[in-house]
Amino acid sequence: MAYSHSQSHNLRHARGYTLVELVVVMVLLGIVAIFSFSYIAFGARIYQDTTGREQLVSQTRFAVTRLSQEIRNAMPRSLRVSDTDNHRCIEFMPIVSSSNYVQIPRPGPSSTDDFIGILPVRSNELLGNYLLVYATNPNFIYGTNNIRRKTIDTVVENSPEPGLVTLDYADSPRFFPTNSPARRFYVTSNPVSWCYNETSGELERYSDYGLFGTQQSQDQLFSNGLANREVMAVGLVNDINDIEQLPFRVFEATLQRSSLVQFDWRFQRSGSNEPLQILHEVHVPNVP
């Protein structure tokens, strides 16, 4: 039976695709899909890595800036670290305000005199904080002997004259053993500690835990139910058994330089082998 030209053309189109053709098309589509998804996954990994690095750098920048500012506003000679705790914590007394005094009780006939100073900035925050005069080492600042540290319980502004303030305290003895060469006094709040928690890899800030003559360890601060704990950074991997990786160091002042605080933080993102080391120094004024 013979077919016309148009009938032959219609029969070829009616047959559709062969199984081999379908398999070839499916294989080609699979190859294209694999490469497409691989490209998308590669781009997603690049984005994830970039975002992770930015977050890590951002948190370290925040922690460095925050701690540097707090250290620069710390009471001179109040910075300390503990060898027995592998330098996991740095402690200091934040300055609330400071000014000069015009009268100070001293041993002898003037031991009952009022403490009178020039009215400082933030004078409304003096009550209940610590008054320090010429506290030249941590023992005078933190120790149980409060001869150079008093707790303010009365503040009378513009007394005995405008622009002056009379400070009173219940501590005994009332007098201060020596004058400050610059006739300077400081008012500080309770101590603050920044600590490295090796277990969690977190950088922690502790406050409101009170005054201790011996510096508290990270474990003691962590278990102190009254302490206010804040996480300032995560991802630290310092090995505190390695002397080269101690998180905090404090170097006392010399004739050539001020007190120096150094912090050495080693960061590493989870699932990444890229380390980030932050080595930063802060110079602290030494005018007690």
Biggest β-sheet: count, sense, barrel? 6 strands, antiparallel, barrel
- Domain unit count: 2
Helix and strand sequence:
HHEEEEEHEEEEEHEEEE
Tally of contiguous helical segments: 4
User: What is the arithmetic mean of pLDDT?
Assistant: 88
- Spatially, the strands of the biggest sheet line up as 3-4-7-6-5-8
**Distance from first to last alpha carbon:** 118 Å
Radius of gyration: 34 Å
pLDDT below 50 for ≥5 consecutive residues: which ranges?
none
Structural category? alpha+beta
What is the topological layout?
Layout: H1 5-14, H2 19-72, E1 80-81, E2 89-92, E3 95-103, E4 115-118, E5 130-132, H3 138-142, E6 149-157, E7 164-169, E8 184-188, E9 192-197, E10 202-207, H4 218-223, E11 228-234, E12 248-251, E13 259-268, E14 275-284
Antiparallel strand pairs: 1-2, 2-9, 3-4, 3-8, 4-7, 5-6, 5-8, 6-7, 9-10, 10-11, 12-13, 13-14
Word description of this protein:
By secondary structure, the protein is α+β, with helices and mostly antiparallel strands. The chain folds into two domains: 51-86 and 191-284, no CATH class; 95-188, no CATH class. It contains four helices and 14 strands. Strands 3-4-7-6-5-8 form a six-stranded antiparallel barrel. Strands 1-2-9-10-11 form a five-stranded antiparallel β-sheet. It starts with a helix and ends with a strand. 24% of the residues are buried. The mean pLDDT is 88.
